[in-house]
Amino acid sequence: MTPFLPPDWLPVIFAALMAAAVLAYVVLDGFDLGVGILLPAAADEGERDRMIASIGPFWDANETWLVLGVGLLLVAFPTAHGIVLTQLYLAVAVMLAGLILRGVAFEFRGKAADRRDRRRWEAAFFAGSLLAAASQGWMLGRYILGFDGHWQAYAFALMAAIGLPIAYVFIAAAWLIWRTEGALQTRAIRWCRLSLGPVAFGILLVSVVTPLVSDRIFDRWFSLPYVVLLAPLPAATLALILGLNAVLRHMPYPGDALRHLPFWGAVGLFVLSFTGLAWSFFPYVVPERLTLWQAAAAPESLSLILAGAILVLPVILAYTVLAWRIFGGKVRELRYD
Amino acid sequence: MDPILLARIQFAANVSFHILFPAITIALGWVLLFFKLRFHATGDQRWMEAYFFWVKVFALSFALGVVSGITMSFQFGTNWPGFMEKVGNIAGPLLAYEVLTAFFLEATFLAIMLFGFRRVPGWLHTGATFLVAFGTTMSAFWIIVLNSWMHTPAGFELREGVAHATDWLAIVFNPSMPYRLAHMLIASALTVAFLMAGISAWRLLRGDDAPGVRTALRTGIIMAAVLAPAQLVVGDLHGLNTLAHQPAKIAAIEGHWQTGGRVPLLLFAIPDEAARSNRLEVGIPGLASLILTHEWDGVLRGLDDFRGEHPPVAPVFFAFRVMVGTGLLMIAMGLACAFLLWRRGALPRPLLRGLSLMTFSGWVATLAGWYVTEIGRQPWLVQGVLTTAEAAGPVAGGAIASTLAMYLLLYALLLAAYVAAIYRLAGKAAAPRPAPAALPAE
Fold first, then answer.
1. Residue B291 included in any domain
2. Which of A161, A227, A296, B59 is the most exposed place for a label (fewest CB within 10 A)?
3. In the predicted model, is pLDDT for residue B35 greater than 50?
């Protein structure tokens, strides 16, 4: 197959696709994992049932975005894939163990022998979600500082390992506000309010640290004309945080009005933060080491994948919307028959 | 320990654990669709009872397949970075197409198939069931294409040490792909056939004759009786294909050291690589020559022709005998059960007990078969193009060993939990199900 695009463009398009897949994963599995982390905070088994049921029809497809993201890294930037995954070897293993535990706990909990067995799988659900979220945070922290070996870089990764689970808890609480009612919804509103502060702090921390440690990133943000062109990004983030805070303070509203708002607001925050990071790193795929073009696979193979992606991705989006509509509204009991 | 060996053991452990679940879901998806369509055609509630029981097994198997599959997608990079660097231009698009055309399809429609029975119209639910079955089969197709290409690479050229695609049709329809795909799809069907027959027999033995149990039993036995003999034929064709493309693997399978004719079919032997001969040989003279060349004194190349480039002999030799032995047992059992079911309408208790013992025989044969073909390709990762050692990464042995221990522990726990959950489901299924509650208003 001959490339139907200037070869220089292909790596950029694939980087954008990969970034979109990772962003979709972080948002979608973010709320799944957050629900898992919030599980011990539920009042009783009925609440835990509803929390788990709220993500039941979604978690599997949500997790697939991770496979697509790492798959695109693998196929489009094989050299970078090798470097990143061997650098993060242990963290990846921990994340996988977490995802395995979370994924199977869902099934095993539903088919448990007795209450004790059920509680055990709930514990596995929680532990798996937390492990996966924390190790993803660690990987993010290591990646942002280009796998730097100083202790400060590890301290930063540790903070990211604490921060990302809190961000997941935040979007999960917003999800539960939308999908649940009654006492559980009231609790979710409180969780959402409590986690917003740390999320704002985390975003601030990353925004301050990255330009400080890298002159290149500093110049990307603070040289003309970028400092003007990019100003809307932090401004929008700040406005969104303040707006969410105001909305959450008076929730729930009569008639459950604005129930969607915190979730889509949280999605907005994730998108803004992600865009900021992406801007800082472009065009590096391994920070400070390897650019998109240096790491890209052969253009013929990339063209073939791109053709498939252009054809299939709209179909995937269409049936994802279908599933969201079928399982929309307030959560109901999940049963096979 | 040697990091390469550790990386291989880790990947093998993960792949072995993973294949257990697709081996079930690939065929069980189609069986569930069959149950549903039979229900729509006959209105007989027993088909639906069988569906509702086996859909639970499907959901459980699917979840385990997904989580172990995700692990695999990462281990390509963590364990074999050299693989993608050298053949990424071939493997990449194949894997990408698997994600795009199979993974999202399965995951999304699985939710509708599992939880949508009373939320969507009947046609959409049946459609979702079809798409899940189709998705698992597509997934099998793409990964078998890639695996076959690693055995019989075609349609590419090496430029500066990196493989570039020249002919995608030749890559997809590489010489061993049709045989391997057919062999694996039938293996999955047989795994499901004996799983269904075995669990149903176990329930009957315990006096649980709930509606749907005999339905699943009969379906499993008919599948076994038809497909187990068919697998023998397909397996034989696959073997001839291997002889043409990977003669060293066949020599290891046969435990055949020195090139020559009238090669015996060894029923048992202990291959000794140091002495480059077998001990305690028991064989049928000339039969291996007959099977592989269709002549009693056909000449087969021996392992000595491939010195330093053939796989470790003993694992391939024994795994092959485990696979074929299990397969022959499946043929005997499938035919005997089908015959008695046809003549008497029911199975005597000893046969039920036998079926119950063979519940997981499909796993044994499938794993043994994969060991034959994968170990049989060594020392190559991609036959003639890339060795396993060249593809290994720089990760230290200690890190691999510790994560290997973690994975092994996790897999052992999950396997035990999986088997226990299936028997628990089967034990509980006898209890009457509560009537479905009315749908709450939205």
1. no
2. A227
3. yes
Q: Among all chains, which residue has been given the structure tokens 């979709």? A: A24
pLDDT of residue A82: 77
ipTM: 0.86
CA-to-CA separations, A126 to A48, B63, B264, in angstroms, rounded: 11, 17, 58
Q: Are B156 and A298 in contact (CB under 8 A)?
A: no
Structure tokens at A227: 């400092």
Handedness of CA B270, B276, B277, B279 (dihedral sign): negative
For residue B349, what are the domain limits? 3-259+301-428
Is B340 a domain residue? yes
The secondary structure of chain A in percent helix, strand, coil, rounded to multiples of 5, reads 80, 0, 20
Higher-scoring residue by pLDDT: B428, B237? B237
Number of domains observed in the structure of chain B: 1
How far apart, in whole angstroms, are the C-alpha atoms of residue A121 and residue A318?
A: 33
The torsion angle over the Cα atoms of residues B75, B81, B85 and B89, rounded to 10 degrees, is 0
* Residue B40 Cα, gap to closest chain A Cα (Å): 16
Q: How far apart are CA A170 and CA A177, in angstroms?
A: 11
Helix pair A9-38, A299-326: axis angle to 10 deg:
30
- Which pLDDT score is estimated for B184? 97
CA angle A103/A162/A27 to nearest 5° reads: 50
Task: Give per-residue pLDDT as tens, A274-325.
Answer: 998 888 888 888 887 888 888 887 787 888 888 888 888 899 898 989 888 8
| Contact criterion met (CB below 8 Å) for B254 and B295 | no
Is residue B436 situated within a structural domain?
A: no
Residue B419 in domain:
yes
d(CA A130, CA A169) in angstroms, rounded, equals 10
Contacts of B214 (CB under 8 A, 6+ apart): B46, B200, B204
For residue B226, what pLDDT is reported?
97
What's the whole-number average pLDDT of chain A?
A: 88
CA distance B153 to chain A (A): 16
Nearest CA in chain B to A75: B92
Q: Which has the closest alpha carbon to B417: B109, B11, B37, B64? A: B64
Q: Which residues from chain A sit within 8 angstroms of residue B165, using beta carbons? A: 298, 300-301, 304
pLDDT in tens, B176-213: 999 999 999 999 999 999 999 999 999 999 988 888 89
Residue B422: beta bridge partners? none
- % of chain B beyond a pLDDT of 90: 62
Give the per-residue pLDDT at B414.
93
Q: What domains sit in chain A, N to C, each tagged with a CATH number?
A: 9-326 (1.20.1630)
Q: Please report the pLDDT score of residue B438 as a whole number.
A: 41
- List the beta bridge partners of residue B272: B277
Q: Given CB atoms, is B107 within the 8 Å cutoff of chain A?
A: yes
Largest CA distance in chain B: 78
pLDDT band at B440 (very low <50, low <70, confident <90, very high): very low
What is the reported pLDDT for B381?
93
Going by pLDDT thresholds of 50, 70 and 90, the confidence category of residue B430 is low
In chain B, residues 58-87 whose CB comes closer than 8 Å to chain A: 59-60, 62-64, 66-71, 73-74, 76-78, 81-82, 84-85
Among all chains, which residue has been given the structure tokens 């997790």? A63
Copy the structure tokens of residue A297. Answer: 């696979």
Which residues in chain A show pLDDT less than 70?
A: 1-7
Tell me the shortest Cα–Cα distance from B306 to chain A, in angstroms. Answer: 32
8 Å CB contact of A104 and B74 = no
Instruction: Check whether B315 has a pLDDT greater than 90.
Output: yes
Enumerate the residues of chain A whose CB falls inside 8 A of the CB of residue B123.
none
State the first-to-last Cα distance of chain B, in angstroms, to the nearest integer. Answer: 60
CB contact under 8 A, B92 and A78: yes
Residue B69 parent element (H or E): helix B45-79
Q: Residue B92: which of A96, A301, A316 has the nearest Cβ?
A: A301
